[in-house]
Amino acid sequence: MRFTRRGDTLYATLLAWPEDRTATITSLGATAGLLKRPPAAVELLGHGPVAWRQTGLALHADLPPRPPTRAAHMLKITGASW
């Protein structure tokens, strides 16, 4: 996974499509200390909004059955404060 940021938007690029269709970002868990407040929304670019949840250990995004593109897959995480 690779990250880039613009303003209050964080982009997480998945280097491979997870077999269980859940993108797990441990660095964005509630207890990791990187976020001052939780995200407001998570979107898979090329697909749209996805269900997500933040636990103490990670941010989990539920992905669709198939990737929307053949290239790298990018999550747009908005509303969090770092």
Structure characterization notes:
This protein has 82 residues and is mostly beta strands. It is 0% helix and 41% strand. It has no helices and eight strands. The protein has strands spanning 2-6, 9-14, 22-25, 41-44, 48-49, 52-54, 59-62, 73-78. Strands 1-2-8-4-5 form a five-stranded antiparallel β-sheet, with no helix packed on it. Strand 1 (2-6) and strand 2 form a beta hairpin. The protein is globular and about 35 Å long.
Distance between the termini: 18 Å
**Regarding quaternary structure, how should these chains be classified?**
single chain
Low-confidence stretches: none
Helix content: under 10%
Mean pLDDT across residues: 93
Index terms:
8 strands, mainly beta, three-stranded antiparallel β-sheet, 82 residues, single chain
Compact summary:
With 82 residues, the chain is mainly β. The chain contains no helices and 8 strands. The chain is globular and about 35 Å long.
Please describe the topology of this protein.
Elements: E1 2-6, E2 9-14, E3 22-25, E4 41-44, E5 48-49, E6 52-54, E7 59-62, E8 73-78
Antiparallel strand pairs: 1-2, 2-8, 3-7, 4-5, 4-8, 6-7
